[in-house]
Amino acid sequence: MKAKYISESFSLWTKITDRTEHAIRSGSLHSVPTESLFLEDDGIQFFVRILKVLSLKAEAKKREIEIAKSTGKTVNPFLPYEEDLFVSDISSTHLCLLNKYNVVKYHLLIVTREFEDQEMLMTLEDFEAMWLCMAQFDSLSFYNGGTVAGASQSHKHLQLIPLPLTPKEPKVPIEPVFESVTYHNLIGAASRLPFVHAFIRLNPAWINSPTEAAKKTFDCYNDMLNFVGIKDIGNGRQSGPYNFIATKDWMFLVPRSEEFYRSISVNSLGFAGTLLVKNEEELKLLKKLGPMNLLRSVAVAEQ
Ligand code: AMP
Q1: Can you give the pTM of this predicted structure?
Q2: Pocket of ligand 1 (CB under 6 A)
Q3: For the CA of 77, the nearest atom of ligand 1
Q4: Residue 233 and residue 243: Cα distance in Å, rounded?
Q5: What is the reported pLDDT for 1?
Q6: Is the pLDDT of residue 3 over 50?
Q7: Is the pLDDT of residue 164 over 60?
Q8: pLDDT tens digits for 68-96?
Q9: Is the per-residue pLDDT at 53 higher than 90?
């Protein structure tokens, strides 16, 4: 891999905070206001956000579809990207942007410089970009592999948000399920998760050498795909949708069967234990069903 690395003086956190202030001033960043609460299920404190206003992101997506229909061309918000949202170059293959419609403060998108489809499997270069960013501050990265996994844009993008994810411990709400894992070689399965998944514990010191971490964890990712039965069906295209989450301590991968339960959309963050609902009606539905059942209904049942 011939990556041109970000400079020695790369301080991602400063760039993100500076750029956020700039993007708010210029009107390019549209933070989405939410209310939040915890919903306990099977000992997990799921963190649920409820949109306070109609989703700006949904309206923007509707506009993109209308433009695509009238012009015959798909709108790609990452190529070209909005200058005001640009945060930093990462490598010769990736750069990072602020998420224009963020629910979580300092939500970053790690996008490929050239177009690659979101249904392509992750590459060694994706992993390298991910670890170069994660080495800069305590954070969680995720990848929504395809529309059914919750991706709303088809240009390849990994995503990164600062940790902790919620105001109380643990840093990632789903973490307690990983206390009891059965390992098949290096790949683990948590007995409390009622759906197909793969889990792997990482050596947290790996993050100190992002390029080396990329090589090791890219191999782990391929083992995890293999474990859950997701393959390359040609030219790097995935055989099925899935969510992928990484912290410096572990990686977690979940194949998907559905994007929605009724009107509730689930992406990788749902499998980290943080859910988003659009209104009180969806919250009522979620409370009735229970968060773990919601996850089970959009994942793949164990045989
Ligand atoms: P996902 O929905 O998981 O595929 O993530 C794509 C993200 O891109 C969404 O969370 C949007 O908020 C965000 N987004 C949409 N348009 C833009 C844009 N022009 N610049 C930066 N982020 C965008």
Answers
A1: 0.95
A2: 57, 60, 77, 82, 85, 97, 99-101, 109, 144, 150-153, 157, 267
A3: 19
A4: 18
A5: 42
A6: no
A7: yes
A8: 888 888 889 999 999 999 999 999 999 99
A9: no
DSSP 171: S
Q: Could you tell me the distance, in angstroms and rounded to a whole number, from the CA of residue 43 to the centre of ligand 1?
A: 32
Question: What residue owns the CA closest to ligand 1's atom 14?
Answer: 100
Number of H helices, E strands in the chain: 7, 15
Of residues 291 and 58, the one with the higher pLDDT is 291
How many angstroms does the Cα of residue 228 sit away from the middle of ligand 1? 28
160 exposure class (CB count in 10 Å sphere: 0-12, 13-18, 19+): buried
Distance CA 95, CA 81 (A): 10
Q: Which residues of 95-126 are buried (b: 16+ CB within 10 A; e: fewer)?
A: bbbbbbbbbbebbbbbbbeeebebbbbbbbbb
CA distance 86 to 48: 29
Amino acid at 20: T
Which atom of ligand 1 lies closest to the CA of 102? 12
How far does the centroid of ligand 1 lie from the alpha carbon of residue 102, in Å? Answer: 8
pLDDT over 50 at 140, yes or no: yes
